[in-house]
């Protein structure tokens, strides 16, 4: 199992930023020094080639050329250049030294040894006494140099060396300056970055405190305030957390209300059962008729509790995604069966069935019958005797509509949005028996089928509950 990282978010943001800054700040002068070194190398090579060509041009392809020493010295005009002529035995015939005072007259033997070990025309980079050179030797057969005091001297090869100390000093200075600037910039930018990141994370710190407070005292509604005037991402985070905590508070309130309502619904039959049992224990049910009546009442209360538990179990399974046995159903036969059952239960009640079109739905037959049965049962139970009830069905392009319409007391305006809540009862039926879960089950079944359930007031008085369910796509040619 991987252990979670304990590195703070501030450090996770700051370290990569500083690494990128270091790469950028230090990389620029290093890259510049590389480019400069390449440029200086090319320039030294060009000077070597140009000087060698100049010496070779003096020969002009002739087998024997005599050059005054003064003229040969004029070839080595550029500063930092050393020109050495050697005879056939490798002895120095002449030397023209244009190096600076610190290097002039030093290191010729070591330099010549390095150059003579290389091939003719091959550029080498010897380092003598801490000074770097670019050097090359050129063969000059038949060349003689006339001197004022020694006469004519034969020169068989010429060594050209260019002092690169100044170039390398420039490169080193660029590197030192770049590194120094990078260090200073890293310190300044690191401090600024740490301050900026800390300021940006301040709303998160406030939200953490709010979350801790919410865990202890149930607060947590001020995340929006904590992220005001922050980055848009933090504002959205604050809004999302506020919504989440508000939803949690509402869910906890709903659970508390549900627990209170459920305990109240169970308390009533339990109180009745306890009363009858106490009466029996005290000998108050000695008469067989009274005992039979008590048993009937207790059986009724047990049935009431069983119904409540069954309905709660159904709602819980619906919330968890109760599997449905879906099939293509014609609505009219299903509704006709429920209407026939209602007419048997209440023969004196006028119950009409109106079906428009040929509505087919993709639904679970048992749950669909339970849904419509609950609606019709509510209408029978909560309206005066003889009040008409209409069950209507209509097909649509994407959904079929089932409506149960009564002409009883109806719903108050404040109740229309809450009639589908669990244990909610309208004022007109608050004292009547029932679990208060019938319409909640209706909505749960409709939602499970991908449909909707709504309540409205019937024109002229009464209540109308409408359920929309997905229809079945009919093949072409079907009537």
Characterization of this structure:
- This protein is of the alpha+beta class.
- It has eleven helices and 13 strands.
- The chain has three domains: 15-171, Beta-Lactamase (2-Layer Sandwich), CATH 3.30.450; 233-319, Signal transduction histidine kinase, dimerisation/phosphotransfer (DHp) domain (Helix Hairpins, Orthogonal Bundle); 326-470, 2-Layer Sandwich (Heat Shock Protein 90), CATH 3.30.565.
- β10 (389-394) and β11 form a beta hairpin.
- α1 packs antiparallel against α4 (165-200).
- It starts with 8 loop residues before the first helix and ends in a 9-residue tail after the last strand.
- It is found in: Cell membrane.
- It comes from Nocardioides mangrovi.
- It catalyses: ATP + protein L-histidine = ADP + protein N-phospho-L-histidine.
């Amino acid at each position: 199992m991987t252990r979670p990282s304990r590195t703070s978010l501030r450090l996770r943001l700051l370290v990569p930023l500083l690494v990128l800054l270091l790469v950028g700040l230090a990389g620029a002068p290093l890259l510049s020094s590389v480019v400069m070194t390449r440029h200086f190398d090319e320039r030294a090579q060009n000077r070597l080639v140009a000087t060698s060509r100049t010496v070779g041009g003096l020969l002009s392809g002739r087998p024997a050329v005599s050059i005054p020493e003064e003229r040969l010295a004029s070839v080595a005009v550029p500063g930092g250049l050393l020109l050495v002529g050697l005879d056939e035995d490798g002895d120095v015939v002449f030397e023209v030294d244009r190096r600076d005072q610190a290097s002039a007259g030093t290191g010729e033997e070591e330099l010549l040894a390095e150059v003579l070990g290389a091939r003719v025309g091959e550029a080498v980079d010897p380092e003598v006494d801490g000074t770097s050179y670019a050097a090359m030797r050129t063969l000059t057969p038949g060349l003689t140099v006339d001197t004022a005091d020694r006469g004519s001297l034969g020169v068989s090869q010429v060594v050209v060396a260019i002092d690169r100390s100044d170039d390398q000093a420039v490169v080193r200075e660029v590197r030192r300056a770049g590194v120094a600037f990078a260090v200073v910039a890293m310190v300044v930018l690191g401090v600024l970055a740490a301050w900026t990141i800390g300021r940006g994370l301040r709303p998160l710190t406030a939200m953490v405190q709010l979350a801790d407070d919410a865990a202890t005292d149930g607060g947590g509604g001020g995340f929006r305030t904590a992220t005001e005037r922050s980055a848009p991402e933090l504002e959205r985070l604050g809004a999302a957390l506020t919504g989440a905590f508000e939803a949690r508070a509402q869910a906890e309130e709903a659970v508390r209300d549900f627990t209170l309502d459920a305990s109240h619904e169970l308390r009533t039959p339990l109180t009745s059962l306890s009363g009858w049992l106490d009466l029996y224990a005290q000998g108050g049910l000695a008469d067989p008729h009274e005992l039979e009546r008590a048993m009937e009442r207790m059986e009724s209360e047990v049935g009431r509790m069983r119904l409540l538990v069954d309905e709660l179990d159904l709602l819980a399974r619906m919330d968890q995604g109760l599997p449905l046995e879906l099939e293509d159903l014609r609505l009219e036969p299903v509704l006709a069966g429920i209407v026939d059952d209602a007419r048997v239960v209440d023969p004196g009640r006028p119950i009409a069935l109106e079906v428009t079109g040929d509505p087919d739905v993709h639904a679970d037959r048992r749950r669909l019958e339970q849904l419509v049965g609950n609606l019709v049962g509510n209408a029978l139970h909560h309206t005066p005797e003889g009040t008409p009830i209409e069950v209507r069905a209509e097909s649509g392009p994407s959904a079929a509509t089932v409506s149960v319409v009564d002409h009883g007391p109806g719903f108050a305006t404040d109740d229309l949005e809450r009639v589908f809540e669990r244990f909610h009862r309208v004022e007109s039926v608050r004292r009547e028996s029932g679990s208060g879960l019938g319409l909640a089950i209706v909505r749960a079944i409709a939602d499970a089928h991908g449909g909707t359930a709504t309540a409205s007031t019937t024109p002229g008085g009464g209540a109308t509950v409408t359920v929309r369910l997905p229809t079945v796509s009919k093949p072409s040619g079907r009537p």
